[in-house]
Structure formats: structure tokens, C-alpha cells
Amino acid sequence: MNSAKTYPVPETVAPQTVVIYCSSPRFQAAFRDFIETTLGLKPGEYVPFVVAGGAGALTRPDMLPKEFRFLKERLELFREQYASIKRVVIIGHEDCQYYKKLSGKLGSLLPFHTHLPLSDMKLLSQVFVRLLAHLGMRLELYYAKFADEKHTQITIEPVI
Predict the structure, then answer these.
(1) Under a CB-based contact definition with an 8 Å cutoff, are residues 44 and 36 in contact?
(2) Tens digits of per-residue pLDDT, 74-126?
(3) Is the pTM of this model over 0.85?
(4) Domain range 17-158, CATH architecture
């Protein structure tokens, strides 16, 4: 006799958005709350794409070709599976451990240091126009940063 708990599966799924964000546990609660309250998305209305470094590799396709390809191919897969997707939301954040490790490996080859800088977030718009326009998705960018010196509060603001 199977005593495993069962969970419901929706009859139809038609997500409107892919939300890409970093896997850092420090930011997860803030990201979930932001997605639900600010973006107004409930589970099933979006595809969460959680990966170390978030969408950072999309800003440097020539320097990080394997990582760029991974992200690009997943976005293409989501678009193929769910024609309902019309938007990509990317949430970057400061003090990313992935970028600290990456800059240690690649050193001076990378123009960023310990986190995905706000300036690189702005490069995402250019990359989407140049290399990801075939997806036909609207792009929205947000940036999370610590709101206090003790790193106990986070703010998330749109990148313009």
C-alpha cells in the first residue's frame, strides 16, 4: 500500500511569463514574494527558471558561450512548449556568489567582479534584441539589492 502524499496537477497550464532568477537561498523568500505580490503571478502562471547566477550569462555570450547556449535553449524550449508565454522577467541581484567564483576562475577576462552589475543588466536588452528576438517575448528587468548594512532586508526595483 502506497502511503505517499499526492498533489494536484492542473488540467491545463498556460503560463504567460518565464521568470529567471538566481538560486541564492538568501534571496528566495524575497523573490517569491516579489513574483506573487508585485508581478501578480501565481504558481502555474509563470515558469520559474532558477539557476546559479540567474541570467547573467546572457550578457556575455562570447565569453560564456556554453552557459549562454544553456539559457538560450531553455528559453526556446519553454516557448515551444507554451505558446502562451509572452514575457521574460529577469531578476538580478548584488553580491552573487556565482559571480565571485566566476571572477576567480576567469579573473581579468571578465569585465565584472563580484556580482552582476546593474550596467550588465542593461546589456540584457541588447542581447535580447540581437540574439533572442526570435522568441517574440517582451523583456522586463529587475534588480535586487540589500536595503540595510546588515543585509537583513532586500529591495527589488525595475531596471530602466
Answers:
(1) no
(2) 999 999 999 999 999 999 888 777 766 666 555 555 554 444 566 677 788 88
(3) yes
(4) 3-Layer(aba) Sandwich (3.40)
